[in-house]
Design goal:
With 336 residues, this protein is an alpha+beta fold. The chain has helices at residues 3-25, 31-46, 86-94, 149-174, 186-192, 195-199, 217-224, 226-243, 267-283, 310-326; strands at 50-56, 62-70, 81-82, 98-100, 121-129, 132-141, 207-214, 249-252, 257-263, 297-303, 332-334.
């Protein structure tokens, strides 16, 4: 077979894989499963050991690692890039691809302490729907000058095929997300943790919830105004989100109430999570213009009982939270 025939055969195989990916994305599936399919197919197409997708968070300030294929380049796969930071952040900010054979020499490259492997070649393309970039699809290879123009064209095609489906899934998820804090709302809670999953799940596996309420929040609104109050809620929601794992969930359950859902965590583990969150909120500067503004939270913790309805589990955590209020606030109390 001549070089030309070999090239045509390779292009035909790649086109077949692109068509297969487009067909697979039409199937109903969870967002994470869809993104995992995208990175795995991209790794095959580009013949690279690592591909990842990072999506912008609801505030459009951070790019969070969602899925990856192959070995991680970082000790912590959840390493965060700020919008505009590094190669990943630059792509998101400018909605343009980057292809470089010497990533660490690129002036836009930012060293992350979590980087554990040599980074030679880098290829990243924006995921754009409409006029907005929603994330970045990136591939890396330890050898220099691995990616060519054809690889970049392939990655751009993958992004063009995938972006509309990712955006549709993102909008569906946002319908279950609180717009102020980025936490799940009640609808999102119902979807992510339906009654049957909570009450009839693997009874050998623990499940705990923690209800957190901002103490004296009315004083914040009355003393500083509702705009500052909103910023405080956003900050508390962010701290709670950073206190849990990626498999856990934070729900904005009411005005200043947040529910932490902790699968595979027993009562003692939930108490540790709750105490860590409480202490962090107590010490945090919640608004840059008001360094003296501090709030505390009271938290109630409950572990699921066998066949316990979801509502009963949440009610026990809520009752424990009110006991924490009665005992003086700024504390964690476990349900009996």
């Amino acid at each position: 077979m001549s070089a030309h025939e070999t090239s045509l055969a390779m292009m035909s195989a790649q086109l077949e894989k692109l068509t297969e990916l487009a067909r697979e994305l039409q199937q109903p599936q969870e967002m994470e499963a869809m993104l995992q399919r995208i990175v795995e197919r991209s790794a095959e197409l580009l013949d690279v050991p690592h591909v990842s997708v990072r999506l912008l968070d609801p505030t459009r300030t951070r790019l969070l690692s969602v899925v990856r294929a192959g070995e991680s380049m970082h000790a912590d796969s959840d390493v965060v890039f700020v919008f505009g930071e590094g190669l990943i952040g630059w792509i998101a900010a400018h909605a343009e691809p980057i292809r470089t054979g010497h990533a660490s020499d690129d002036p836009r490259f930012v060293v992350k302490p979590e980087l554990t492997r040599r980074l030679g070649s880098f290829l990243g393309v924006p995921l754009v729907a409409g006029a907005r970039c929603m994330g970045v699809l990136s591939a890396v290879h330890p050898e220099a000058d691995h990616f060519g123009e054809h690889d970049e064209q392939l990655a751009v095609l993958v992004a063009a095929i995938c972006a509309p489906r990712v955006e549709a899934a993102r909008l569906e998820r946002l319908s279950g997300t609180d717009p102020l804090t980025g936490a799940l709302n009640r609808r999102g809670f119902d979807r992510e943790f339906p009654e049957v999953r909570v009450a009839s799940g693997d009874l050998a596996s623990p499940l705990s919830v923690a209800m957190a309420d901002v103490d004296h929040f009315k004083r914040v609104n009355d003393g500083y105004g509702h705009a500052v109050g909103d910023e405080v809620l956003k900050a508390v929601g962010r701290i709670l989100g950073e206190s849990v794992r990626s498999d856990d969930a934070v729900v904005r359950y009411g005005g200043e109430e947040f529910l932490l859902v902790l699968p595979q965590v027993d009562r003692e583990g939930a108490l540790k999570v709750a105490e860590r969150a409480r202490a962090t909120v107590e010490e945090a500067v919640l608004h840059p213009a008001y360094a003296d503004l501090r709030v505390t939270i009271s938290i109630g913790v409950a572990e699921r009982r066998p066949h316990e309805p979801r509502a009963a589990l949440v009610e026990r955590a809520d009752a424990a939270m009110y006991r924490a209020k009665q005992l003086g606030r700024n504390r964690v109390v476990a349900s009996d």
